[in-house]
Every structure is written in C-alpha cells, then in structure tokens.
C-alpha cells in the first residue's frame, strides 16, 4: 500500500512511522523543514487531565510511547514530570473539576481534587485565597518537541519512509469520489491514501480535496520570564483556567508564561503571521501570572518569547477519520497535537491498513459531528 503523509510535524511523522512499521510504503511531504510549523513552537505539554474521555484515552495511549521513548527511539526527549495543576476561581469551574477527576480516575488516571491550601502545597507562591478548588496530577509534565521530532524522523528513515522537505502540496488528486494522490510543486505522487496531518494548514489541504473542515489557524504566544522569586523545577505547570493564564518552570528559576487573552481570536494566514512575541501581550501575561502566584510580583523580567499556531476546531477536539475514501484526516488538535501524536500515528495506520481505528474509539472525532448544532463534545481544559 502506498501512502502520502502531508505535514512534517510531530503528527505527520508519528503517522508515517506507524504506517511504515505496519508495512506501508510511505512518502512524507513537508513544505518547509521537519517540525518547523506548530511543533517547533509548542510548549511540549504531556498530560492526562482533559475534560472528555476520548482526550484522556488519547493521552493514555500516547503515554505508552512517551514513557519509553528513549528506549524505542534512542533519543532523550527531556520528559519532566512536575505535574499539572488546574485552578478554579468559580464554583462552576470547581464542580466541573469534581466531575473531571471522577471521570479521569475511572479511566485509570491518578488525578486528585484539591482544596486551595492543598494546591499551595504544590505551588508554594500560589495566591490560594483567590481560588476555590484545584485538580492535580503529579504524573503530568512536558518534553522537548524538537528532540521528539528528531527521534521520530530518524525512526521514519530507518523504517523506509521517504521524507521530502521543501516540497509543497499544490493539489489533492481525486478520481470520482476517491482521493488517489497529490500534486506537489515537483511532481505527482499517486497513493492509495493521503493523510492530512498538516496542522494549521490542514483546512487548506482539505479544501484541495473539495472538503470543508472547520480547522482554523490561531496564533498563540509564549514568554520566557525571569520571575522576582525563582520558580523551582518541581512546581507544576499551573493553569488558572478561569482567566486562561498559565506558567511552568524552566531551568535556573525561570518560567514560561502564556495564555490567550484575545476574545476575538481571528484566523491568521499560516504563511504570513508574526512569529515574534507582542510586548503588550507579554506584559498582560505576566500580570495575569502575578495575579495567580507571587513568583511574578515586582520586577519580573521578560527575557524573550515567540508565537506559533494552534489548529483549532469549534469543540477543541481533533478530526481523526477517513473523511472520504483515500483521504485520512488527523488534524485540529487545538494545542494538544504534540502530546497526542503517538496514539494518533497508530490510529492513522489502523484507518489506512485495517479500515477502522481500534486503539482508541475515535468515532466521536469524525467531522460529521459539526453537522449537528451544539454538540456534546467540548474540551474545557484548554490553555
């Protein structure tokens, strides 16, 4: 079986690797360099604390790979586990935490519902009086996305994947109702399946196949901050869910600070957006972080920052399906593509080679859910 994977980020690489390991002949095409899109600008979060079972199950299936990545791929991805701490300012959010923790525990996740005082035990400078509850999992953490790309890329080459960088897809080729290959800026490539793992460009690739998928590019920013009080490396990645602010420890007492504060949140052109951090946004992000924790009081210094893209859907869940015969979509992860890439790669291989996905039940992730008004599938734990 011949497969073309479109997109050289972590999801495309994981899909190409799983396909090749299962016996497919795989060509991966990437318009830039490997990992140069959203993956390179990801915060690298790896967590299980999601608000829907399907996202939790994608996390658990991916953890089986992340936990053994160095043994399988020969690359240390700097997987650190200081935990994730979600904070609630409102009783409504606290009630959702109770339900989320119960659901997560039922699926085997060791998350806990915490009081504000218990949350401060994990994050010593937390302004606990401003919160009513928290949820926490000590096993959550983050890794280096660029190192993960290196591991998957080398494994793809060893498995026989033909990787073509600097190769843009210009058209998706169809025959009646089936997709039969792609036209790149260099040549035509025929295939039994085309995998759309193009991240923020996935909507455009779908459009080449005359498909309208609600996957939209959104700009997100991160700042590296030198706090007034150093943040210990054992402090969890802390998310003030009601304001959208978050921070996490870096080396030598520094912190990454982020959050989305633009309610309009417009589409951006993924080929022409600013990759630099906005100073006004950075000042707001540090102010929000200071309102959450006293690490950022006083003269916290913003060292540097950057911007990248989320590929967002209306319910903050990906589309994982064979959208039309011969065209498999694995995109729209809404900021969670890095952590869910290992499981997604295996699901893509199952969809292409077996005709159905069995690793995780992804029936809820089909694009026809957007045909309904107000679907039930909404991920709330988003930063």
Automatic annotation (TrEMBL):
GO CC annotation: cytoplasm
Keywords, ordered alphabetically: Oxidoreductase
One Pfam family linked to the record: DAO
One Gene Ontology term of the molecular function aspect: oxidoreductase activity
Domain (FAD dependent oxidoreductase): residue spans on this chain: 2-351
InterPro entries reported in the protein's UniProt record: FAD-dep_OxRdtase (IPR006076), FAD/NAD-bd_sf (IPR036188)
UniProt name for this protein: FAD-binding oxidoreductase
Organism name: Halorussus gelatinilyticus
């Amino acid at each position: 079986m011949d497969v073309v994977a479109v997109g050289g980020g972590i999801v495309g690489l994981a899909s190409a690797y799983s396909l090749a390991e299962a016996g497919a002949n795989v060509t991966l095409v990437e318009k830039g360099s490997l990992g140069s899109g959203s993956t390179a600008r990801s915060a690298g979060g790896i967590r299980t604390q999601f608000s829907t079972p399907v996202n939790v199950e994608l996390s658990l299936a991916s953890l089986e790979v992340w936990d053994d990545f160095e043994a399988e791929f020969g690359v240390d991805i700097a997987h650190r586990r200081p935990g994730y701490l979600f904070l609630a300012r409102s009783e409504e959010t606290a009630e959702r935490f109770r339900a989320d923790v119960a659901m997560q525990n039922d699926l085997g996740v060791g998350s806990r519902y915490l009081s504000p005082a218990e949350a401060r035990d994990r994050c010593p400078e937390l302004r606990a009086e401003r919160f009513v509850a928290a949820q926490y999992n000590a096993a959550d953490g983050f890794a280096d996305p660029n190192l993960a790309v290196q591991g998957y890329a080398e494994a793809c080459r060893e498995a026989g994947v033909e990787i073509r960088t600097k190769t843009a897809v210009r058209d998706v080729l169809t025959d009646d109702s089936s997709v039969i290959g792609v036209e790149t800026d260099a040549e035509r490539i025929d295939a039994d399946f085309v995998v759309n793992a193009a991240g923020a460009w996935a909507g455009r690739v779908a459009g080449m196949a005359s498909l309208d998928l609600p996957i939209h590019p959104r700009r997100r920013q991160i700042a590296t901050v030198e706090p007034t009080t150093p943040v210990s490396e054992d402090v969890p990645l802390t998310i003030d869910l009601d304001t959208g602010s978050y921070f996490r420890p870096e080396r030598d007492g520094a912190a990454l600070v982020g959050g989305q504060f633009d309610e309009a949140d417009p589409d951006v052109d993924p080929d022409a957006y600013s990759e630099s951090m906005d100073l006004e946004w950075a000042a707001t992000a540090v102010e929000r972080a200071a309102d959450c924790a006293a690490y950022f009081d006083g003269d916290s210094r913003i060292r540097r920052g950057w911007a990248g893209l989320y590929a967002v859907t209306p319910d903050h869940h990906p589309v994982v399906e064979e959208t039309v015969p011969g065209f498999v979509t694995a995109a729209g992860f809404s900021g969670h593509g890095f952590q869910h890439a290992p499981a997604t790669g295996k699901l893509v291989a199952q969809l292409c080679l077996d005709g159905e996905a069995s690793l995780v039940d992804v029936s809820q992730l089909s694009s026809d859910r957007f045909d309904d008004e107000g679907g039930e599938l909404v991920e709330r734990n988003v930063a």
